[in-house]
Amino acid sequence: MCGFAGYWSFEHQRADSSLIEKMLASIRHRGPDGEGVYAQDSLALGHVRLSIHDLSQAGHQPMFSASGRWVIVFNGEIYNYAELRDSLLVHGGLSFKGDSDTEVLVNAIDIWGIKKALEQCVGMFAFAAFDLEKKELYLARDRFGEKPLYYGIQNNTLAFASELKSLRPLSSLGWRFQVDRQALATYMRYAYVPTPCSIYENISKLEPGSYLKVGSDRSQSLSYYWQASSVLSQDKFLGTYDEAVDLLESKLKDTLKIQMQSDVPLGAFLSGGVDSSIIVALMQSLSPKKVNTFSIGFHEAAFNEAQYAQDVAKHLNTNHTELYVGQKDLLSVVPKLPTIYDEPFADSSQIPTFLVSQLVKTQVTVSLSGDAGDELFGGYNRYFLAESVFSRFIDPGPFRAGLKLLPSALLKVLGYLPTAYAQLPDKLLKLKAVVEQGGRSREDLYRLLCSQIYDTSFVLGAKEYSFNERWFWKASKELSYQEWMMLADSQTYMMDDILTKVDRAAMAVSLETRVPFLDHRIFEFAWSLPLAYKIDQGQGKRVLRDVLYRHVPKGLIDRPKMGFGVPLSQWLRSDLKDWAQSLLQPDMLRAQGYLDEKQVSSYWKEHLSGKRNWSFALWNILMFQSWYKQWMM
């Protein structure tokens, strides 16, 4: 895994190698093992390398195809590169200088063309490839957006990079970095800036499963080589449930065989939950040596899963490393967040994710995770509550009236329950808010269930972006509500929250992460299964659990879902109070001109008094303010 940046002047301004080096300097954490620059005519490409395969200079980038026609900068992994290499060797006269997936990819593009090459790749990636013969640039991103890619055109210059911060030096070419107010309003609702937006005007994220062709005349053409919508028309699995369990285990093992390939030490995150446990269990079944596993623990019982991870690791006989972190460790990460996440990002599990990545990096360079199991196999609580909540949402009647009677005093008292019930007041408040907001469609309910803030009118001069034209909104009538929510999550929340969180946290410490569940063949198989194979009797991941129970006893796994949170509400009233206060000063907010200082002050005062728990809304605001202070002041 690596990082890259580049630019192309349409005014034929000669490429400046010193500028591309400045762009690379801010993302060197993504690739501490090497750096390369190509600057010729009006094109500049730069790359920083984290060596995983072929540690020799033969893997150095930017890299040319054997014909010399194509030059590429690439970030990620092509897991089936050895198979593709064998296919390419059939092409007469082709020889390889090394054993890197980048060399396979650039020659696949040269011989097969961009679309076929992408269709053949199994992996996570983003790249920029330039056709020196036709003077055309291609930007491409993997099927699920595991790897980031930002791009934009300003002042007759196209530029692109793995992270936003890498584009900042382009101010010397007349690029401007202005907050997109609509993107800001949308971020405030969801706690992330959704694709294809970025926090800046005129800079976008490339959509997953797509490639962008840019000509020397500035023409742009966006094409898709894969879309998740393909699962809606594929053949359904017609076998028995037991056959589905067998086939899922077989497919996961096939995926792990290629994802466990590495020329550097490799391990896995282990929380003790279903998803990470099944990945580790199958890794151990395939490995002659003990698998390296890692977890962190918290002293707060409501947030601590370390004992569960330890029990699973002991049963599987892995080489397990555990680190307990205290409040001081967690709080020390907060000042680093606007640098790690260089656009506003407010999923508070970003804090422990960074700490566990830091731990893992002390021993390995590659770590596998169990991310995406929830979206593929129905793990979130909202999936199996969806239909009953939806009926009350459409015709709430007494249900709405009853929730309105919930007094703030009761919710305050609930806040003093034992830590095992710490999230109960928030969940009741969210349910109350969802019903009170009202609405008449599945889409309305989904937006509200995914919202951190229900009313974003405090973002001045802006309305949220509407994504109603996206295909998965239109697919809502073809699927059950549970299935539609799973599909929507896989195209939004999973990519822009879960995968973004892990990529930035891990790459900040030069750690590559891999997500076996996001082999597109696993995704397609999961979607071929009947819903009853995934959600059954109020519990998700049925088929996944039954694969896991072959390797780990039920007693070590079956328990309520916990998540990976931190006690935000308490922190904002204590250890983080002064920090938050400094970022929420009315005079500062008024001078910036983005947020209504009266509404923000109301949130803050109500939270401090204990009248309401506004921790999620405040964290969204604080992460924007912290980012703004770092990058815009």
Description:
- The radius of gyration is 24 Å and the shape is globular.
- It is α+β, with helices and mostly antiparallel strands and 633 residues long.
- Mean pLDDT is 91; it is low at 409-424.
- It folds into three domains: 2-226, 4-Layer Sandwich (Glutamine Phosphoribosylpyrophosphate, subunit 1, domain 1); 230-377 and 494-556, HUPs (Rossmann fold, 3-Layer(aba) Sandwich), CATH 3.40.50.620; 567-633, no CATH class.
- The strands form three sheets. The protein has a six-stranded antiparallel β-sheet with strand order 2-3-1-9-8-10, covered by helices on one side. It has a six-stranded antiparallel β-sheet with strand order 4-5-6-7-11-12, covered by helices on one side.
- It starts with a strand and ends with a helix.
- The protein is 42% helix and 15% strand.
- β8 (150-154) and β9 form a beta hairpin.
Could you provide a short overview of the structure?
The protein has 27 helices and 17 strands. By secondary structure, the chain is an alpha+beta fold.
Name some characteristics of this structure.
633 residues, Glutamine Phosphoribosylpyrophosphate, subunit 1, domain 1, Rossmann fold, 42% helix, 15% strand, globular
